[in-house]
Amino acid sequence: MSQNTPANGKTPADFWFDPLCPWAWMTSRWILEVEKVRDIEVRWHVMSLAVLNEDKLDELPEEYRDLLENKAWGPVRVVTAAQQLHGDEVVGPLYTALGTRFHNNGEGPTREAVVGALKDVGLPEDLAEYADKDTYDTELRASHNEGIDKVGQEVGTPVIAVPGADGEQVAFFGPVVTPAPKGEEAAKLWDGTLLVASIPGFYEIKRTRTQGPIFD
């Protein structure tokens, strides 16, 4: 599914996200900047922090465990339901609407924010009902597993995958960056990320975060 080249000839960049994560949101705004300056087409897929952590909830801090158990399932279920009922093309716009409300506007992952996001992109408000239903959990988990299987269980969201020189996908977690670079800075980060990710045996570059996400 994810390795097919778009009909327009652009390089597909598959992006797995959980709308709850502010860092994935930052990365998603960056890759949309990259789409303006590099010949790529972003294709959006859901993954789930709740699924990723469901076997290790007892090891997590209480506040994060509460977030995963009580708030993480709803938004990603709604996006999955929208995708199943209205097509892949609604996923990106709905993610943008959700992320803008959750993160930029500070509304958080509330029911009201989800309903507002659905209205923002012209989708039926009753899709919000799927937040409390497991109707499409099989599809949600399949999408999650497709992304996470490319990079392993020790990472989170986002996951990005692009075709490599040999035709096989190159996949990686991140990059984690704030604020989201724009213009040529976005392009430089894209080029550099692809360069290091394409090296066989390369696994990690990291430094301690000294500031939180800067939404703009």
UniProtKB/TrEMBL annotation:
<dbReference type="Pfam" id="PF22234">
    <property type="entry name" value="Rv2466c-like"/>
</dbReference>
<dbReference type="InterPro" id="IPR036249">
    <property type="entry name" value="Thioredoxin-like_sf"/>
</dbReference>
<protein>
    <submittedName>
        <fullName>DsbA family protein</fullName>
    </submittedName>
</protein>
<dbReference type="InterPro" id="IPR053977">
    <property type="entry name" value="Rv2466c-like"/>
</dbReference>
